[in-house]
Specification:
The protein has 361 residues and is of the alpha/beta class. The protein folds into 2 domains: 200 residues, no CATH class; 154 residues, no CATH class. 43% of the residues lie in helices and 28% in strands. Strands 1, 2, 3, 4, 5, 6, 7, 8, 10, 12, 13 and 15 form a 12-stranded mixed sheet that branches. α1 packs across α4 and α3 crosses α5. The longest helix is centred in the last third of the chain and has 34 residues. The protein is flat, with a radius of gyration of 22 Å.
């Protein structure tokens, strides 16, 4: 068996093993901050700084004075969070106050009645239930969204089904995009009115749209620069993707899932602490490079197919990469399939990059 496949198998096996070891967890204090990982993580004592936790099941019972960053199969937050909550998992229940913002993603997400978010909430998942009050805005993308609490700001929702319960009290405007009509209890209140969107959602109107345009333009510039600066590297990556598309996607999925868990595991060891911190800092950059790299490879493939005489020119490669990046951004903005496109692009980009670097090493 090839060495990289062995490494992937070990990574997945370690994750599964950690999930099955109910009481096996390791933790380390980093000044006021704390990092902990294992099969079942229960953080009972207060944390004076930030908390970073990952595992098959993560329970936060003690108060966290700083930010809480959580990842795992099943997450539950019963201790108050002094700043912001960032979490991703199969199932997440927030049952305690958060003093700043909440950014969460997962299969099933619930903000319980005992929770109160003093800032804003951004959530993405299969099912999102908002039962506790939010003092800021609410921005959601999900298969099903149920709101049954007070929201002081605007609510923007893109979902297959949107429901307002009898306790829903939205002070701002409700904007939603859904194939079905809004299901609204007669007792639900929306102070700013209801607006149904046919396309992209935004937190406001002009400013978020302008920001999205600037972000897309930045990605296009980055794609063009990478295509012009690293033509030989992307030629090898394109060959890898063309000959091994399935393996590229599989490797990308493993890297996307395993790298954050590996980073947190490194944080709890003295020797691995610097490498763990470096991995956490580099992870968002790696995702960005992998995402843009797919546009560079797509541009090269398009030139090879329709303009083979110009595929060796760096200017044409840069222009094709920018055009491909724009096409990906447009497709990613389409309701329903947009999130799947983003995930697929990340899988392919990470996997192609991983396999190419492995071959070079």
């Amino acid at each position: 068996m090839k060495s990289w496949i062995t490494a992937l198998a070990v990574c997945v096996a370690c994750t599964a093993s950690a999930a099955s070891e109910a009481n096996d967890s390791v933790g380390r204090d980093l000044g006021d901050d704390r990092a902990v990982a294992g099969g079942q993580v229960s953080q009972t004592r207060p944390v004076a700084g930030d908390l970073m936790a990952a595992g098959g099941q993560v329970n936060v019972l003690g108060a966290v004075s700083g930010d809480a960053m959580l990842a795992g199969g099943k997450l539950r937050v019963d201790g108050p969070v002094g700043q912001s909550l960032y979490a991703a998992g199969g199932r997440l229940t927030l049952a305690a106050p958060v003093q700043r913002n909440v950014r969460i993603a997962g299969g099933k997400l619930e903000i319980a009645p005992s929770a109160r978010v003093s800032g804003n909430v951004s959530a993405a998942g299969g099912e999102v239930r908002v039962l506790g009050p939010i003092d800021g805005y609410l921005f959601v993308g999900a298969g099903r969204v149920f709101i049954n609490s007070a929201v002081a700001g605007d609510v923007n929702v893109r979902a297959g089904r949107v429901e307002l319960g009898p306790r829903a009290a939205i002070a701002g405007k409700l904007r939603y995009a859904s194939p079905d009509e809004l299901v609204r209890d007669p007792a639900a209140r929306v102070g700013g009115g209801v607006q149904r969107y046919a396309g992209m959602l935004s937190r406001g109107d002009a400013m978020p749209a302008a920001f999205g345009g600037i972000w897309t333009a930045g990605l296009m510039v980055l794609a063009a620069l990478l295509a012009a600066a690293l033509p030989h590297r992307y030629e090898r990556m394109s060959r890898t993707l063309a000959t091994r598309p399935g393996m590229s996607a599989l490797a990308g999925f493993a890297v996307l899932v395993c790298l954050p868990v590996l980073a947190i595991l490194l944080l709890v060891t003295i020797i691995g602490l610097p490498l763990g911190l470096l991995t956490l800092l580099a992870y968002p950059i790696l995702l960005l490079i992998a995402y843009v790299s797919v546009a560079v490879m797509a541009g090269r493939m398009a030139l090879a197919r329709w303009e083979p005489d110009r595929q060796a020119h760096r200017g044409w490669q840069a222009g094709a990469a920018a055009a491909a990046m724009l096409a990906i951004a447009v497709i990613a903005s389409v309701p329903w399939i947009g999130a799947l496109v983003v995930l697929a692009v990340l899988f392919i980009g990470l996997g192609s990059l991983f396999l190419t670097l492995r071959a070079a090493w």
